[in-house]
Design goal:
The model has no long low-confidence stretch (mean pLDDT 96). The protein is of the alpha+beta class. The protein is built from eight helices and 17 strands. The longest helix is centred in the N-terminal third of the chain and has 14 residues, at 53-66. It is globular, with a radius of gyration of 19 Å.
C-alpha cells in the first residue's frame, strides 16, 4: 500500500491527499492515453535532492508531444511544482509521480475539447525489487508477452496504456515464481523489463539494447555515462536470449529499480549467481551520485 503524504499538486494547487480525485468518466481512465514520469528524490549530504529532474520533465513533455497531448504548463512551472510537492510533504526520500491525462468532458476515441490535467504526487517508497535483490540479485523469466512494436505504440513515449503490456508480463513472472520478467521485441531479441532497461556483461563488454523498441531510460543514460568514466567497453546493440543466458553479469536499471542485479534467467544462473564486479562498481557509483557523495555530476541533483 502507498504511504500517504499530506498533499497532491493538481492543476496548479495543492489538494489534501484523500481529496485528489477525478470523475469516473475521465477520458484517460477509459482509453489509456496519458503520459507520466517516475522520479526519485534522495537524502544526501546537503539534504534532499531530486535526481535528474530536468531530464524527467523533458521526457514528460516529449511523451506528451509524441501522443499530441498539450500540457498547459511550462517546463519551469512543472519543475517548480515537483520541487514544491516534495517540500510541502516534508519528504526526505521517496518517489515522485507526475501524470498528465485527458480529463472529463467528451467520450469516444477522438476528443477535441476535453481538458488536459496535470497532477504530481510524492510519497516514501523503498526498493522496488526488494532490498535483498538489490544486494544479491533477483530471479527473472523471459515473458511470453512481446514488447510493443515500434509502430504499434510509440516506444519512446511513457504512455499510461502501454503499461498493460508490462502488467501482463509482470503477473506472468510472479505467477511462475520469479521476481521480474524480461521481454523480447517483435523480432525475438531481448528488449527490456516491464519497467526497466537491461544490461549484460559478456567477455568484458557491457551491452544494452539500443533505443529502438525500448524506453529511453534516464537511469540507463546515467549508467552509460558512468561506464565511460570507468573505461568499460560499451556496446548498444541487439542480443538474443541465449546470449543473455551466457552473460557473466546482468542487471536492470530504472528509477524504481535503480540498479538491480540479475542472478538467474529462466533457471539458468548468470555468472556465479552473484552481482559481478562491473555491476557492483556501477551500482556503487550510482548511489554515491544520487546521494551527493561525488562532486562529479552534481548538476544531476536539484536541491529541495
Amino acid at each position: 500500500m502507498l504511504k500517504e503524504t499530506d498533499y497532491i499538486w493538481m492543476d496548479g494547487k495543492f489538494v489534501p491527499w484523500k481529496e485528489a480525485t477525478v470523475h469516473v468518466l475521465t477520458h484517460t481512465l477509459h482509453y489509456g492515453l496519458g503520459v507520466f514520469e517516475g522520479i526519485r528524490c534522495y537524502k544526501g549530504k546537503t539534504g534532499t535532492a531530486i535526481f535528474r529532474l530536468k531530464e524527467h520533465v523533458s521526457r514528460l513533455l516529449g511523451s506528451a508531444h509524441i501522443v499530441q497531448i498539450k500540457i498547459p504548463f511550462t517546463v519551469t512551472e512543472i519543475e517548480n511544482a515537483i520541487i514544491e510537492t516534495v517540500r510541502v510533504n516534508k519528504l526526505e526520500e521517496g518517489y515522485i509521480r507526475p501524470i498528465a491525462f485527458i480529463g472529463y468532458g467528451e467520450m469516444g476515441l477522438y476528443v477535441k475539447n476535453s481538458p488536459v490535467n496535470l497532477t504530481i504526487a510524492a510519497w516514501p517508497w523503498g526498493t522496488y525489487l526488494g532490498e535483498d535483490g538489490l544486494q544479491n540479485g533477483i530471479r527473472v523469466g523471459i515473458s511470453s508477452f512481446v514488447r510493443h512494436h515500434v509502430n504499434s505504440s510509440m516506444s519512446h513515449a511513457k504512455v499510461t496504456g502501454s503499461y498493460v503490456n508490462s502488467q501482463l508480463a509482470k503477473k506472468e513472472a510472479i505467477n511462475a515464481g520469479y521476481t521480474e520478467a524480461i521481454m523480447l521485441d517483435t523480432d525475438g531479441f531481448v528488449a527490456e523489463g516491464p519497467g526497466e532497461n537491461l544490461f549484460i556483461v559478456r567477455k568484458g563488454v557491457l551491452k544494452t539494447t539500443p533505443l529502438t523498441s525500448v524506453l529511453e531510460g534516464i537511469t540507463r543514460d546515467t549508467i552509460l555515462c558512468l561506464a565511460k568514466k570507468y573505461n568499460f567497453t560499451v556496446k548498444e546493440e541487439r542480443f538474443t536470449r541465449d546470449e543473455l543466458y551466457l552473460a557473466d553479469e546482468a542487471f536492470f536499471t530504472g528509477t524504481a529499480a535503480e540498479v538491480t542485479p540479475i542472478s538467474e534467467v529462466d533457471g539458468r544462473v548468470i555468472g556465479n549467481g552473484k552481482p559481478g564486479p562491473v555491476t557492483k562498481t556501477l551500482q556503487q557509483a550510482f548511489f554515491e551520485i544520487v546521494r551527493g557523495e561525488q562532486a562529479e555530476h552534481s548538476d544531476w541533483l536539484t536541491q529541495v
